[in-house]
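call fold(seq) -> tokens
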Amino acid sequence: MLGHPVAENPIDRMFDAVYAHYGLPWQFWKSDIASESDLALAVAAMVPLGFRGFTITVPYKVAVMPMLDELDGDVQAIGAANYVTFEQGRLIGHNSDGKGVVKAIEKVVPLKGQRVVMLGAGGAGRAMAVEIAWAGASHMTLVTRRESQGREVAELVQRASGVACSWQPWEEEIRLPAGSTLLMNATHLGCAPELERVPVAWDTVDSSCTAVDVITNPRLTPFLIEAREHGCRIVDGVEMLVQLAMEIFERWTNIRPDEAVFQKAVAEALGE
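ret:
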């Protein structure tokens, strides 16, 4: 994994346990990359160092794209990559972020017809926004601090899916549009060790709304705890991680994994 920060992400412990289960003498390494210039050096070194593939996390899912030899159709449509495979020394970019979150959400509630509010629209957020729209959401509102980013991703969603998508400025207290049925935190607020609160005005959130978080550590973030106390159904980022990681594992190893193996591995990685 290449990104910054990466220390609190349990993905290495999860993958290593799954490798061991399937008898693969492999390891998953996390590398904290300080800058885009360092990222370019790291990406160029992957093949000669003997790696079999790599994942990309914040803040480099968009920046990595020009460093790759080829982008699959999803990456071209979404504009972000979260993992790379090697084919005869060529680096091929893929994206499983959106597919992972769609599978995780649909274990709890169908996405068809949902009116979605997404907080944040970075590399993972843009992939999730497009995939959620493709899965049948009827409307999406993106809430971001940077207007240019929010409007750019809103236009991307509409262009890629035909689903209406609007931008809303991030305010000191985030108020949801009337009729919202799914609220998703796609920011890093709430990640260990800081555990910051997501500033949602819960009086604007209906208790029938589903709350989704992308944070993987802790499983129950301050945002999800508040949502559950408000009566909302919740979908945690660990479930999303399992779903997207299974796609990556199969692409790297040509082994179709048992989901129970991944669920057990990530639970142990988190000390649950």
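The longest helix spans residues 237-253.
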